[in-house]
Write a structure and sequence with these properties.
The structure is a homodimer of 578-residue chains. With 578 residues, chain A is an alpha/beta fold. Chain A has 19 helices and 20 strands. In chain A, the strands form four sheets. Chain A has a seven-stranded mixed sheet, with helices on one face. A six-stranded mixed sheet of chain A has the order 5-4-3-2-1-14. In chain A, helix 1 packs parallel to helix 2 and helix 10 crosses helix 11.
Chain lengths: 578, 578
């Protein structure tokens, strides 16, 4: 009976931490060995972390990555490991080393290099072409491919499985999160498995890296499209499965569809090189490998966890022990604080309330309630004295101009200055609290409420802010975010009786228009056709266009939609809109 | 006698201004006609401006670009025009329309798509393959290629000229400036012309677009490698040449090297399609076309003009009438102000001096002298009262902590807040004044002196700041930037007797290390080998690495080196340095 025990090690790598990542890989190889796995797999570019960006342009970085891989190679006695690294010969390759018994048996080089959305792989890598590399381990034929490679029905997999007869395909990935992507991913993997009658091992990265969160959710799929093992989302995990390769052989022999497809198969599989691997596995105990069952998460739940992991990793990987958040009493800062507490613990979160003459009693009280509910320290710094002093100092220059944006922004910037003073004094990282709706239309103050090292809700529309807040309260079974905060009409409180609705349409409307314009790239007419007023659409689109300069100077934030601001949407500042 | 009158129209396009750019193209076609040119050429992507970035992902944008091209087509009676636009069929192409007498005669699609440095063309475009498209106009065989295409000795040009016999190659470009690039460009063009015995028309874009300046310098090169016409640098221009195509024919027939090379020529030229163009040119008057001679600029001079054009176009294309600059009395702000005055005129520049308790009498007086020399308005806003008020308001929270960075940055941020208040009140754009040396090592305050819409010296090392200041004074024959400013030891003046040299090595040393690390991607050991102390190099490299977060939130600035911060150098914030 052809059997294989496979292990997917879903690890959280740090970009640039070549030897640290190698150490983590070695630890996981040890765990896999102890569980008597035949083969253990790691995510794409596990040695250098993903995405390494322009670190790849530094020759010594690539050189050291190969030395770090060598450390891993030394630690593969009695096991086979598939490890993502940067290979180099006449160019750089996004590669996987297939290592066994202290030796690199082969190197697979990624063929499909994504160069869209947040990806820039053509900037660095040369297209590989090692789909014809097949390995034979304990009589089982397997092949490796990398992330994007598996997203194409006619990609390397078909050559490997249908053409060259691989019974197991190992895909190593660093697939970033957006809402519901896991469902797309899982459906695709199941289809690939059944289309090609092949076992699939899919190992994803986990962890936050600047704008990206890698959501894990690695899986092992059998040739009938059943998920037989599933790793945690948003956390490190290691999963195992005993693969019944015999079933693949049998299916392939007796499936009438397979026969028909084989007879029609005209792909040029080119040359196939088979590398035999014989590993001296210690006598195997008949240990039961449980297929870990993970309940699939709902959309709101997974967004929540993505935001928590994004915050945790940005803060801790950049060496901060605490964060500081300006608490206005509004829902955005409340949600940001709740996420930060989940991610870092209440002791690591400091709230600052900075009331002005325009702050209502209710918002002031809500800031206090929130801090109490979350169990975080709250600092109060009234800003009215400073605001008055600024106005005095500017009186002669401002003359008899009407009070307006300049005065409103002054208040936001005093608060920004206070947060940064605390940051500089105590080494706390400032989390900014603006949501995607505000950031889209520029309803935020540059160097004011936009200050911070990380912008937690930058890709979260206001309507989703409400959903997340409801989820948090429901989840905890108590009022974490005060009902008064959730119910109150949104206001920036920078002038008397100000309401967001003075400047913006209601958020249900706004968010829909923004979705069509930003994520769908609809033109004015197309948005109007979905049922909105032309003048309103024009106004919103114009606000998005003219505020590119603000977004360019905003802190990074966590991508949770198919198109986030940042690396994902690269718009000129200087432009004429049509 | 085969002759052709060619005209290169070096225009300043606006990104996204499809119909505006089309109008400018039509105006230049008219000028070319009046000078009885047979053919007129425009820069790469002249219809949509360069680089259009993610505007290209909007289907209606591409659609409108084709409609705008149609407007141009209608205006080509009696002349042939080569116009850059985005072509679309099964993908998007960076293309050139060859238009004549109201008809598109052919479309060339760029083959070599740059996807390095500031370029992301693989993100948008499909690789073309229309090198085999040859046009015959008045018996002269010509072919077109686009920007990057001509930078490869074995690129489309060799197929077109050597293989298919084109006598004239028209290259349309949007080639961004960095120091001395023009010399590389000119040498390359001369070599291509002589290698292939071909006439070359090279039309570059001019103008500023966010981080980039297109420096113009279009040229027409004969088949002996002589530049027979040369356009202005950093300005719109239109140049003409009467091409003696007969000389190409003669050279090709009688050159022994050509015969030898032809006999060895094994490139697969594929199929060649020749399109005949007959234009009803009005009877030509024997007008003398002067080859405009332009003195080549020195490095410092061209950097100065690049900065001036970058500022002018960023400010005016974004619709601002005035800029405001914080004048510290130091050299960076003085140089920024001088550039702004050159770019926009003294009436469009406002200086603000914001002295504190740490400002010396000399710097205060220098700010005044500079404003007087430049003839700009100077506003004085002392910040000590506000600084004192902030310290009071923070006294309880700061407790008995030692005075340090928090207090220093407070001052810079008060100044930033003041500049933004003026910006918001009067609609002035803030120009920030930090240089590349400071921005590299983070010797600057985020939301403080880093505030602004545009960062003029972001890619200018401090040592170059001195050279530029000297150049400005020499150029004007008077002391524009006060000698005292140039002579004084640099200081941020944020604490008593502070000097830059307290925190940084001297700028000669620093700039060399930065150059090796940033532009050359040297590792520590390689930098040390050039003659620097290991500990010092480590310290500088560390400062560069840990300040990525500040640069990510800095305003865009003008690229003048081969590797500028911004789109040109894409480093992760979260990373472990090796």
């Amino acid at each position: 009976m052809k059997k294989l025990r496979i292990c997917n090690a879903q690890i959280n790598c740090r970009v640039g931490d070549l030897y640290g990542n190698a150490g983590k890989i070695i630890d996981n190889i040890q765990t896999a060995k102890e569980s008597e796995a035949d083969i253990v797999t790691f995510p794409e570019l596990a040695i250098c972390g993903y995405p390494p960006e322009d670190l790849l342009l530094k020759p010594y970085f690539v050189h050291e990555n190969i030395k770090a891989l060598d450390e891993v190679v030394k630690n593969t006695r009695g096991i086979t490991a598939v490890v993502g690294f940067v290979a180099q010969n006449d160019g750089l390759y996004n590669a996987a080393a297939i290592i066994s018994d202290g030796e690199i048996k082969g190197v697979y080089k990624k063929v499909f290099l994504p160069n869209y959305s947040v990806f820039d792989e053509s900037r660095y890598f040369t297209k590989g072409g090692s789909e014809g590399l097949i390995f034979e381990l304990n009589g089982v034929r397997f092949a490796v491919n990398i992330c994007e490679d598996i997203w194409y029905a006619s990609g390397p997999l078909v050559k490997q499985a249908m053409g060259a007869g691989a019974e197991l395909i190992i895909n190593i990935s660093a697939s970033p999160f957006y809402t519901d992507k896991i469902r797309v991913r899982e459906n695709m993997l199941k289809t690939r498995a059944t289309d090609n009658l092949v076992m699939l091992s899919y190992t994803n990265m986990t962890g936050g890296q600047d704008e990206l969160v890698f959501d894990g959710g690695s899986m092992i799929v059998d040739c009938l499209g059943n998920v037989i093992a599933r790793a945690k989302r948003f956390a490190e995990d290691i999963i195992f499965a005993d693969l019944d390769i015999e079933s693949v052989v049998r299916r392939r022999l007796y499936s009438p569809q397979r026969k028909l497809e084989k007879s029609m198969f005209t792909h040029d599989v080119g040359s196939v090189k088979t590398v035999k691997i014989t590993t001296a596995v210690a006598a195997r105990k008949s240990r039961k490998i449980a297929a870990a069952a993970q309940e699939p998460m709902g959309s709101v739940e997974e967004v929540y966890h993505a935001l928590c992991l994004g915050v945790k990793d940005y803060v801790t990987k950049n060496g901060f022990a605490k964060v500081v958040i300006g608490l206005s009493g509004g829902i955005d800062s409340a949600l940001t604080a709740a996420i930060a507490v989940h991610a870092l613990g209440a002791k690591s979160v400091v709230g600052v309330t900075m009331p002005s003459r325009y702050s209502s009693d209710e918002t002031k009280s809500d800031a206090g309630k929130l801090a109490k509910n979350l169990g975080i320290r709250l600092i109060t710094i009234p800003i009215d004295g400073l605001y008055k002093k600024y106005l005095d100092d500017l009186k002669d220059i401002f003359g008899d101009t009407a009070t307006g944006i300049a005065e409103e922004n002054l208040q936001a910037r005093i608060r920004g200055n206070m947060l940064m003073a605390l940051s500089n004094k105590f080494g706390w990282l400032v989390l900014s609290t603006g949501n995607k709706s505000e950031v889209s239309v520029g309803y935020c103050t540059l160097y004011g409420d936009m200050v911070g090292g990380f912008s937690v809700l930058k890709d979260v529309y206001k309507t989703v802010v409400y959903r997340l807040s409801g989820y948090i309260n429901a989840r905890s079974g108590t009022q974490v975010i005060p009902d008064t905060t959730i119910q109150r009409e949104p206001s920036a409180e920078l002038r008397p009786d100000q309401k967001d609705s003075d400047s913006l349409p209601d958020y249900d409307t706004l968010d829909k228009i923004l979705h069509y314009y930003i994520e769908m790239d609809f033109c004015l007419e197309e948005i109007v056709e979905t049922g909105f007023d032309l003048e309103l659409v024009k106004k919103v689109v114009r606000m998005v266009d003219v505020n590119e300069y603000k977004r360019r100077q905003s802190p990074p934030g966590i991508k949770i939609t198919p198109k986030a601001f940042g690396k994902d949407r690269r718009m000129p500042i200087t432009k004429v809109s049509i």
